Amino acid sequence: MLMAAHWVREGWLLVPAGGEATEWRLHAAPAGGISPDGGRLVTPPDATTHGLFPAEAPPPAVASDFPALVGWRALRLPLTRAEAERVLTGQLVVAGYHGGRLTAAHGVQLPGVLDDLYAAKARAREFGVSWQAARPSLALWAPTARRVALRLWPTDGPLTAEPQVVAAARQPDGSWVADGEASWRDARYLWEVEVYVPATGRVETNVVTDPYSAALTRGSTHSVIIDLTDPRWAPPAWLRTPSPRVERQVDQAIYELHVRDFSVSDQTVPEPLRGTFRAFTLPDTAGVRALAELKAAGLTTIHLLPTFNIATLPDRSQQAVVDENLDAYPPDSASQQGLIGEIADRDGFNWGYDPLHWSVPEGSYCTDPEGGARTREFREAIAALHGLGLQVVLDVVYNHTAAHGQHPDSVWDRVVPGYYHRQCGRTGEVLDSTCCSNIATEHAMAGRAMVDSLVRWARHYHVDGFRFDLMGHHSRQNLLDVRAALDGLTLTDDGVDGRRLFLYGEGWNFGEVKDDALFVQARQGNLGGTGIGTFNDRLRDGVLGGSPVDQSTLTEPGFGTGLACLPVEEATGGPSRNQAQASRLGYLTDLVKLSLAGNLRDFRLLCHDGVVRRGDEIDYHGVAAGYADSPTEVISYVDAHDNETLYDIGVIKRPRAGLEERVRRNTLMLATVALAQTPLFWHAGTERLRSKSLDRDSYNSGDWFNLLDWTGQENGFGRGLPPAWANLERWPLLGPLLADPALRPTPAHIAEARRQALRLLRLRRDTPQLRLGSAELIKERVHFPAAPPGVIVMEIADPRRPLRVVLNATQEEQAGCAALSYLVEQ
Q1: Which residues does 78 contact at the CB level (< 8 Å), separation at least 6?
Q2: pLDDT by residue (tens digit) across 356-372?
Q3: Is 293 marked active-site?
Q4: Which long-range contacts link 268-275 to residues 24+ away (Cβ below 8 Å)?
Q5: Is 789 helix (H, G, I), strand (E, B) or coil?
Q6: Secondary structure of residue 97 in the 3-state scheme
Q7: How far apart are the C-alpha atoms of 328 and 548, rounded to whole Å?
Q8: Which residue in the list 362, 395, 464, 469 is annotated as catalytic?
Q9: Please, are residues 302 and 385 in contact by the beta-carbon 8 Å criterion?
Q10: Beta-strand (E) ranges in 418-565?
Q11: Which of 332, 346, 515, 672 is deepest in the core (most CB within 10 A)?
């Protein structure tokens, strides 16, 4: 039965308009058993029936909260609150009748009424484990549950033993509470939730970890009762090392780094610590020296890919490894990826965008993953990075979970079935436009869980910011709620000044939420005035020659990848299309210019066709290219963990270039980021020509393809054909490239690329004109005089030290700037 009815407010339901029905009823069965059978509805003996009455329209707020349901038929349900709460714990079916014959039967989606009845009342409650003196109290929000109990295992007992079972008491806010004893400290526990599950059509007893877990056992099978303020979990270095201060958001220079990549291949790290948080605490490893070098040049911040508890990573003791010597295979062989593919879902590598528990550090990154030890080890890593003078930003994923329904990796949905995930309005199917089970943070308690998790990371770990995965799948209001909650944190009370935490994310516009279909999204163009940044794909595409996710432009070069250097016939198919090539180069150059000026919506730019346009008048795939009101609302980048690395995309787009040219181009492309009036974002290793052997999606490609070599002896190119599961159709193109030894840089090339990248960081740090910090100053002072094709000249007026910047993407000296280079002169 499709879940096409929506109980949106106490007393109000919505059903699809149209149909034959002239009479409507709500049927409720405590344990399920309702099903349509031809022209009638089969109901169990304990079912109850309640009349529904057509109404003109629901309250106005319903339309703003549920815009996708505007125009649906409104039905009034005259139940008392007690009656509503009772029927919400069982199966519900809205049935339409005509002349006594069943003409429609819809299951009922409940998020609206659950928010209406309970969310405000639950606002003051602390979920998970809270402490009164030395006694814990555990709270779980489960308003549709029939019964909830706590299964408890003492600290020193085996998890195979029978647990102590403690009944939880239901509260008026839909929560269930179990008050404990001091002896519960460090005990392991699970929630036992007896609840009707629409997907199975019956009452289930779900035994689940706590979605608000603060700690977990090895393997993340059980939650652990800990106090995050317990001194045992507070390393001395973490207590005494303050967060480094970045004065303004525009000063941010961010380095995106994967925890395992950082040390798993570093031979200067003791083997037991490779791939762990503790590798950051070692004083003189190759990786730590590299980070210190970047910091000395001007890097401010380490952005760590997901560090929360990840569903797809097994415990370190259970991780599979490839037994063969992969170095023995040719650079264009399929053998490496084949062997990695056999263990890909059982090894220790994954990007980690598969959250199991949002607010607990990942256990496979710990030497001791039991209970509070995870907290201690992660705090040690944060303290070590702070000690290097680097801020720490966490990559967070609240837009989806790894699973939903009754799947073992489903947590939230087994507590309140059908509430936390975004469902199709007409079917009830959980949507997966994020490639996993979408979370509906527009629902009050889902949004609340997101805020609570972020406050925990800030208050109890002292991190310095958050990067939001697929942020456009959250609402603008979600992010404003996050900002307000963080702004309330103080150094005195919380150990962190929440107002200084930096927020940014992927403001992409797609899926069921596209174009604000369900709410005003936290996406590009919607965050003006918030100070929250979004990644600028306009710069990326202008430099590279098109979106890396668009395979139709895979081999087409851009401003930085050789368009200005190609013969006309090579770039466009023949001399007769010279104008098309020039026009494309001009357009991509406009995108780069606009991005250098902060990608502001009202920046006025003389475009390549001689027309002056505002940023929001320049087209970008049918939308405005310029979308920001402030330069801090833009994160400039040209590569990231997603898609090909900067080196790899350069090989694909310009395969015949020599290695010296590749080094110069790498520097030139990084300069478009470093010299922009926005925060800077570099992918780890991009300064040392990092390659993933042309892999376009290395999320599950193992340590082999994700190599990060701090010694500079190799860059990762030619480690075999990239995994077939993401690259098979491109193998005919990629194989010959990987086999070409002329495309593999030497240590000398890697060293030169690193030296030039460090020079860029120092230049950005030491040149305040490149970080004006306000839209008004940018519009007043930044200008782009006419320049030859393939060349950008940017002038920054300053009463004392005017600046002239040249980016030359041609193979000839232009405007006083050497070929394939940049120039900054005062």
Answers
A1: 11, 50, 51, 53
A2: 999 999 999 999 999 99
A3: no
A4: 272/367, 273/367, 275/316, 275/348, 275/364, 275/365, 275/703
A5: coil
A6: strand
A7: 31
A8: 469
A9: yes
A10: 437-438, 465-468, 502-505, 533-536
A11: 672
Express each pLDDT in 740-788 by its tens digit: 999 999 999 999 999 999 999 999 999 999 999 999 999 999 999 999 9
Rg (CA), the chain: 28
What is d(CA 262, CA 510) in angstroms, rounded to the nearest whole number?
A: 32
> Would you call 358 helix, strand, or coil by DSSP?
strand
User: For the residues 254-268, what does the mean pLDDT come to?
Assistant: 98
Other C-beta atoms closer than 10 Å to the C-beta of 552 total: 8
Helical (H) or strand (E) element with 289:
helix 286-297
Residues sharing a CB contact under 8 Å with residue 222, sequence separation 6 or more, in sequence order: 153, 159, 188, 189, 190, 209, 216
Q: φ, ψ for residue 809 (rounded to 5)?
A: -95, 15
Please report the pLDDT score of residue 121 as a whole number. 96
Confidence grade of residue 572 (pLDDT, cut at 50, 70, 90): very low
The predicted model gives 393-413 an average pLDDT of 98
pLDDT tens-digit readout, 273-291: 999 999 999 999 999 999 9
Give the per-residue SS3 of 596-637: HCCCECCCEEECCCCCEEEHHHCEECCEECCCECCHHHEEEC
Q: Please list, in sequence order, all residues whose beta carbon lies within 8 angstroms of the beta carbon of residue 261, skipping any fewer than 6 positions away.
A: 684, 703, 706, 707, 708
216 in Cβ contact with 222 (< 8 Å) = yes
State both tokens at 387: 């000690």
User: Is 515 among the catalytic positions?
Assistant: no
* Beta bridge pairs of residue 7: 13
Name the strand (E) or helix (H) holding 298.
Answer: none
Encoded tokens for 273: 């610590």
- Return phi, psi of residue 486, to 5°: -70, -40
CB 358 within 8 A of CB 453: yes
Chain centroid to Cα 162, Å, comes to 39
pLDDT given at position 38 = 85
Cα–Cα distance, 345 to 602 (Å, whole number): 48
pLDDT in tens, 184-224: 999 999 999 999 999 999 999 999 999 999 999 999 999 99
CA distance 207 to 150: 9
- How far apart, in whole angstroms, are the C-alpha atoms of residue 623 and residue 645? 26
Within 10 Å of residue 762's Cβ, how many Cβ atoms?
14
Q: Assess contact for 695 and 644: CB atoms under 8 A.
A: yes
pLDDT value at 681 more than 90: yes
Any bridge partners for residue 521, and if so which? 475
> What is the distance between the alpha carbons of residues 740 and 541, in angstroms, rounded to a whole number?
27
Distance between CA atoms of residues 788 and 559, nearest Å: 13
Residues forming beta bridges with residue 505, ordered by sequence position: 468, 534
Beta bridge partners, 361, equal 308
Task: Give the pair of three-digit tokens for residue 336.
Answer: 């490496």
Whether the predicted pLDDT of 668 surpasses 50: yes
Residue of 192, 256, 506, 541 marked active site: 506
Share of the chain above pLDDT 90, in %: 96
Mean per-residue pLDDT over the chain, rounded: 97
Which residues, at least 6 apart from 67, have a Cβ–Cβ distance to it below 8 Å? 517, 518, 519
360 phi and psi, to 5 degrees? -125, 135
CB 364 within 8 A of CB 315: yes
Of 338, 355, 356, residue with least CA distance to 210: 356
From the list 569, 544, 573, 539, the residue with the least C-alpha distance to 556 is 544
Question: Which one, of 823, 542, 543, lies nearest residue 670 by Cα?
Answer: 543
Q: What is the rounded distance in angstroms from the CA atom of residue 587 to the CA atom of residue 608? A: 6
**Nearest Cα residue to 65 out of 123, 12, 16, 107:** 12
- Statement: the pTM of the whole predicted model exceeds 0.70: yes
Residues present in the chain in total: 826
Task: Please name the amino acid found at residue 145.
Answer: A
